[in-house]
Amino acid sequence: MYVMALIGASLATCGVGGLVLAAIVSYGWFATFWDKRQPAAESEPRPSRTPPSLVVEILGVVAIISILIGLFFPAISTPRPVARSTICSTHLAQIARALHNYHFMYGSFPPAYVADDRDKPMHSWRVLILPFLGQQQLYDAHRFDEPWDGPNNSKLLTFVPWGYTCGAPQAGSKTSYFAVVGPDAAWSGAAAQSLDDFDGGSDAAILVLEGPADQIEWSEPRDLTWDETIELLTATPNDEGLHTDDEGFFFTRSYGRNAAMADGSVRRLPPNLSRAAAASLLHVASEDAADELDSGNHDAFRRRINWANVFRLIVLVIIVALPVPWAMRRRPLPKHRDPSAPS
Hints:
The protein has helices at 2-14, 18-33, 52-77, 81-106, 125-128, 136-141, 226-234, 275-282, 289-294, 307-321, 324-329; strands at 113-115, 121-124, 177-178, 180-181, 206-210, 224-225, 243-245, 251-255, 258-261, 266-268, 302-305. By secondary structure, the chain is an alpha+beta fold. A hairpin with a 4-residue loop joins strand 9 and strand 10 (266-268). Helix 1 (2-14) runs antiparallel to helix 10 (307-321), helix 2 (18-33) packs antiparallel against helix 3 (52-77) and helix 3 runs antiparallel to helix 10 (307-321).
């Protein structure tokens, strides 16, 4: 039962590497408690057991090994989240470059959506810039005489361009990148805007924002509203739509969302922005948002304690040290001196 509990706690704390730790600890306690031979008679002195000092040394080595494995194994067994963040930033940069190439060719950014005669959104800006992302074939397959979810276009949902997802290609057909649509934002809906409309400077407004990747189909003509974006930028960091870098055993540092600015640059925004700073970043006529972010008034990350790992490590240490009281009782017996033997 002890070995099974030890194996379970080691696997929960260290993953597969915990099997090595469990084997070392089991061998240490086996060597401590196992008698190589039994006494022949009650009168015969019992053989000496492992001295307590050796037990302490064994426990010290086991503790050091358990801490090292617990600290370093999670880092080498899972991909670093910073690599995922780099991929997401690269995709955002490609989208921003495609939008600027569209602007260069047509004199404005694409509209947030193409509407029908009744002002109902039909096609997304993500479809309009496909040729500038190297997706000409997918663009040609899209039919503009039917809605985005029509008989033909709905079949194209499974062909989500890799650049529209954050990180590795994901299952399904959702996108990770959204325009912010509003009267004072970079996107005003069915009307196209040019850089001349950005009175505060093109670098001071968010063009495309990284958001939750489970809500909107990649070709769906729907994005984030002004209020929805404010809530995202001011929310407490969580795992949805955020990147976690420097994910250690005890602590995880969470960073904010990536955003492509209207000048084509990509910035990682701090978490928990104030509503005033978030609104400034969305407003095309703002001149203060970028300066406020650069001034260091906002924390670059938020650190969280990995309580689950802390609890697992505590349980593992308790199980490893559980036999210590019994080991300390197994002191070597004093040697019996035969009175008839010569002194």
